[in-house]
Each structure stands twice: as structure tokens, then as C-alpha cells.
Design a protein that fits this description.
Layout lengths: L1 H25 L6 H9 L13 H10 L11 H12 L9 E5 L21 H4 L18 H5 L5 E3 L5 E3 L9 H5 L5 E5 L5 E2 L7 H7 L11 H5 L5 E4 L2 E4 L9 H5 L5 E2 L3 H25 L1
Antiparallel strand pairs: 1-4, 2-3, 5-8, 6-7
Helix pairs in contact: 2-3, 2-4
């Protein structure tokens, strides 16, 4: 009986094996070697920045669907170059973008709190509880969904609990932007340095009242009036930059009464202006003494 069972199982195994071997040959789908080559040079993080569910899907689309070859943000121009060489086409360089957080609230000292949140540690969960712990209804709720979503360690939490972006590590994949339930994060060309770091649509006094560090946009529209390129417009009490028009002059940042607009060169310009004013006053005094 045991011998019979062993023979039967062996025969069935052989039949099924032959069937699978036949099926694998009959229904085999030949993969273009170019797809495999492209898949090998892609970062393999499957971040979805290209619009496809994974790197292998993007590699297949590039070869079989003639998809653009510059959609891999983490890979940057190096990947574009390699793909162009594999496909034998001209490389189209992509513009590097980095994440910008349009909010300066959050952390320990920059936020007025409605309550101490002790629920599920996600931003999506936090905002379901009376709009979140942040007194500003448009601000960061500092549960760090964006930091958790970053695959490149480009988002850091400082001692105050504020999120800082490491520009050297940021690949512009957009995972953090997708993770933010309040849409506070935008991918912007690394060439642009002037940013409005506020997303509040509250009116002036209310906006400042709700902002813990008093850097909210108050809708005064001074920046809109001062901009020489009409690159700023007011949208529902909030100043918004059109980066296609912005020339990085920083005039908006220099004139913003609440420091809602950030420009790393603002202090440099202020220092030069102060020095020029000092020299002019000294020259005037010297001229008066001579006369």
C-alpha cells in the first residue's frame, strides 16, 4: 500500500512538472533586455515620483510606451543620461526640485496648542480631533508623517521639534508632499530661494493670533504691490508666489512685516544697506565739516 502511494505521488509529480514546463514555454513572455538594463540603473526605492507604482513599471513604460526618460526624481540627471545611452536617444535633462514646507509653526516653542494630543501618532489622525492640536487650522500638526515618508533621510527634526529639510539629500520625489494631509509641502526648483512659509487663509489679526511664532501671512498685500514682476498674488488672504515669474530679487521678503517670506540673502542685503547708509552719513558729516 505504501509503495503504491509513493508511485502514485511520484507519477502525479512528474505529470504536473511536465505540465508546468510546457506552460512556461508556451506562455513565456519575452522581456526586452532594455527594460532589465534600465531597471538596474533606477534607484529601486519605488517612491512613485515618476507616476508609476514602482521602478520596474517605470522601466517598462519607458521602453514600451515611449514614456519621458526624465521622470525619476531620485535618480536625477545621471539616470537620464544612462537611460538615453541604453535607448540610443538624446538626453533631456530634468530640473532638480526640492521640498519646501510652507509653514513655520509646529515644534515646542512655535505653536499655540488647543490641547495636548495623545492619540495615534499620525497627522491624518491628529487633524480629526477638533482640527488638530495646532491652534492654527492651516498649520503643521507635528506628528511627522512627512518625515516618516521620506526614504532618503532628508527631513530632520531639530531640538525644537521643527522639521528641517536637508537640501543635499532631498531628491524631490514628493513622498513627503503626498503624506502631508494639509498640503503644506511643495516641490520647487532648487534655483528658487524665496518662499512664502505660511499657508494660513485667516484674516490679518486672526492669523497672527493663531500663529505661535507670529510669522503668519496677514494678507496685507505689501509683497504683491512691491513685486516688480507680478510674481505674487493674494489668494483668499494668503500671498502665493508664481515661481515661473519669480526672479529671486527678495524685495517681497525685505518688505514683509511678519517675516512670513523667507530669503536666505535678506540679512546680507540688510547689512549692506546699513553699511551704505552709515558711509553716506559719514560722508555727509565730513562734507559739512569742510564747509
Amino acid at each position: 500500500m505504501l509503495l503504491y502511494s509513493m508511485i502514485t505521488l511520484g507519477a502525479l509529480g512528474l505529470i504536473y512538472g511536465l505540465g508546468l514546463a510546457f506552460a512556461s514555454r508556451k506562455f513565456h513572455v519575452k522581456i526586452d533586455p532594455k527594460i532589465e538594463k534600465i531597471n538596474k540603473i533606477l534607484p529601486g526605492v519605488n517612491c512613485g515620483a515618476c507616476g508609476y507604482p514602482g521602478c520596474s513599471a517605470y522601466a517598462e513604460a519607458v521602453v514600451s510606451k515611449d514614456e519621458e526618460i526624465n521622470l525619476c526624481a531620485p535618480g536625477g540627471n545621471d539616470v537620464v543620461k544612462h537611460i538615453s545611452e541604453i535607448l540610443g536617444i538624446k538626453a533631456t535633462a530634468s530640473e532638480r526640485k526640492i521640498a519646501v514646507i510652507h509653514c513655520q509653526s509646529g515644534g515646542k516653542d512655535n505653536t499655540f496648542l488647543r490641547y495636548e494630543y495623545q492619540g495615534i501618532s499620525t497627522c491624518k489622525a491628529a487633524i480629526l480631533v477638533s482640527g488638530g492640536p495646532n491652534f492654527c487650522n492651516y498649520g503643521c500638526v507635528f506628528q511627522y508623517d512627512c518625515v516618516k515618508a521620506c526614504n532618503f533621510d532628508a527631513m530632520l527634526i531639530d531640538d525644537n521639534g521643527m522639521i528641517q529639510i536637508d537640501k543635499d539629500k532631498c531628491t524631490g520625489c514628493g513622498a513627503c508632499a503626498k503624506a502631508c494631509p494639509r498640503n503644506l509641502i511643495e516641490l520647487v526648483s532648487e534655483k528658487k530661494r524665496v518662499h512664502i512659509l505660511c499657508s494660513s487663509h485667516d484674516k490679518g489679526a486672526e492669523s497672527r493670533k493663531r500663529c505661535g511664532n507670529k510669522t503668519a501671512c496677514i494678507g496685507c498685500s505689501i509683497c504683491e504691490k512691491k513685486c516688480p514682476k507680478d510674481a505674487i498674488e493674494m489668494v483668499d488672504n494668503l500671498a502665493v508666489i508664481n515661481y515661473d515669474k519669480c526672479i529671486n530679487c527678495g524685495i517681497c521678503a525685505d518688505n514683509c512685516p511678519t517675516n512670513a517670506i523667507f530669503d536666505p540673502l535678506k540679512e546680507v542685503r540688510a547689512k549692506k544697506k546699513a553699511e551704505a547708509k552709515k558711509k553716506a552719513a559719514a560722508a555727509k558729516k565730513q562734507a559739512e565739516q569742510k564747509s
